[in-house]
């Protein structure tokens, strides 16, 4: 069985990229097709043979993929998959737009239906073209033969927006790596996130200003300067991108991770849990599947400073009742080895179903 992987763009590191590395271990010979490829900002992709579209020949666009939004579906349509038996698209945007011939199975591992069309607000000045983008996205959504979803939250969205059925296989964490540390609790709260608007890091800063608590923010993004400005005068450190070894150290030292966003799934609470650290999370989206309220963390019901403040107070009242061993055991259920088995078993099941002789 000759396999290819397709991903929206290879120019950053995050949860989806960790999924790709796990899939590489299942399909080590599978090339990785993508819109644009920037080796400098995606060192994890060195294990792949990366095949980008023609847009990647323009260096300027390798880090500005958002400019390509109107053209990305067309670019993916130019890629040729005729030699492959199975293509797996891993996508929250346009990778599902690829065209395959009848003999080739296309499985979409959906991170979410395209976020800025269906889930988060579209920029007001451009809303007049939103119906066009939605129509194109709906056309592309019918190209995969099968859908797998990363969470029950995403499974619901796939059914709601694309009218497609799917099965859930949760993404993995490297449990053994993150669990290889003893919890040494310090006095700071931790945020681990890309610094983009929908992640709601400004909510954390506003709340910690009122509570006068220490924090460490790990991650980079377009809102870095703005958030640093909002944190002026506070005991909040911004570390940018750091190595996983240093990240593990901060996970294990935090009082708790704060996870304020509506997330598709959210690997951060599980990585923290593997270190024995609880998470204070917004109780919507994927966090409902990764944080057990009162056991591995605290859930709050609204993305407001008042609600988050109440959650922090509730956490601090019972902080000593959280047990690292219980938290770690929860995270172990999402270990990469289990993901690889679940994913490969599901692909085999789909393959056998597709090739079952008809009477």
Overview of the structural elements:
The chain is an alpha/beta fold and 359 residues long. The model has no long low-confidence stretch (mean pLDDT 94). Strands 3-2-1-4-5-6-7 form a 7-stranded parallel sheet. It has a 6-stranded parallel sheet with strand order 10-9-8-11-12-13, with helices on both faces. The protein contains 14 helices and 13 strands. The two termini are 24 Å apart. The protein has 2 domains: 3-172 and 336-354, Glycogen Phosphorylase B (Rossmann fold); 175-332, Glycogen Phosphorylase B (Rossmann fold, 3-Layer(aba) Sandwich), CATH 3.40.50. α1 packs across α14 and α7 crosses α12 (305-318).
Which descriptors apply to this entry?
Rossmann fold; 14 helices; alpha/beta; globular; 2 domains; 36% helix; 359 residues
